């Protein structure tokens, strides 16, 4: 984006350098993304594009003209939902902006002090709003993740209780089946004893 803006404004060399640096940075990050975490790659990419903005704009002595782009870079840093990355980004922006006040010929050629102070203040206010929104988003994501974990625990507990209930039902069924078997055995014994008694009674009558 910065390279395109320079190209449109007529700074062809600066635009080419910016686009080349951006492409190089992106290529390096893409090459090593399989070896590092996604968040780490995002941090490297966001900080690299910030340094590109600072270096290229200060080389043109127009760092004050890039205040909106600095704020956009802060928003870009927030995409990765990493508060540490955003704080580092914010600190680097402020260091560059304040250091430029002591090297105005290099950073802010022709800019008035009042304009610079208002611009730096506006960038910080915008950066705070971005940081606040991202912080709230991260907090909500953490709350959702914790709720999901709690839900999974509850589901596991319910499943465990259901398994215990099923096991108890199986045990009860086994007990009922054993009782039924014992009842059948007792009934069979009673029938046999009855038959024996009838046989004895019949024999006694025949003897008489």
Question: What would your notes on this structure say?
Answer:
There is one protein chain. The chain is mainly alpha-helical and 208 residues long. It is 88% helix and 0% strand. It has seven helices and no strands. α4 packs antiparallel against α5, α4 runs parallel beside α7 and α5 runs antiparallel to α7. The longest helix has 95 residues. It is rod-shaped. It starts with a helix and ends with a helix. The relative contact order is 0.06.
Average of pLDDT = 76
Order of helices and strands: HHHHHHH
The largest β sheet comes out as: none
Distance between the termini: 126 Å
Shape: rod-shaped
| Number of helices, counting only DSSP H or I runs of 4 residues or more | 7
Tell me roughly what share of residues is in helical segments. over 70%
The residue ranges in which pLDDT falls below 50 over 5 or more consecutive positions are none
Strand tally is 0
Summarize the structure in short.
With 208 residues, the protein is an all-alpha fold. The protein is 88% helix and 0% strand.
Please give the structural blueprint.
Elements: H1 2-9, H2 12-32, H3 38-59, H4 67-78, H5 83-102, H6 104-107, H7 113-207
Features of this protein?
single chain; 208 residues; mainly alpha
């Amino acid at each position: 984006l910065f390279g395109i803006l320079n190209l449109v404004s007529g700074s062809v060399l600066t635009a080419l350098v910016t686009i080349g640096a951006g492409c190089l940075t992106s290529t390096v990050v893409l090459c090593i993304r399989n070896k590092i975490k996604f968040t780490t790659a995002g941090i490297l990419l966001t900080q690299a594009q910030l340094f590109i903005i600072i270096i290229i704009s200060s080389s043109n002595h127009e760092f004050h003209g890039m205040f909106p782009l600095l704020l956009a870079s802060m928003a870009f840093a927030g995409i990765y939902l990493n508060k540490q990355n955003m704080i580092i980004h914010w600190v680097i922006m402020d260091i560059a902006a304040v250091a430029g006040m002591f090297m105005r010929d290099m950073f802010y050629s022709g800019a008035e002090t009042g304009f610079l102070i208002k611009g730096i203040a506006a960038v910080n206010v915008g950066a705070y709003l971005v940081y606040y929104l991202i912080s709230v988003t991260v907090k909500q994501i953490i709350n959702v993740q914790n709720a999901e974990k709690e839900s999974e625990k509850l589901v596991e507990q319910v499943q465990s209780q259901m398994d215990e209930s099923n096991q108890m039902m199986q045990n009860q069924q086994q007990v009922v089946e054993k009782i039924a078997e014992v009842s059948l055995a007792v009934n069979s014994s009673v029938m046999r004893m009855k038959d024996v008694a009838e046989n004895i009674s019949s024999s006694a009558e025949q003897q008489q």
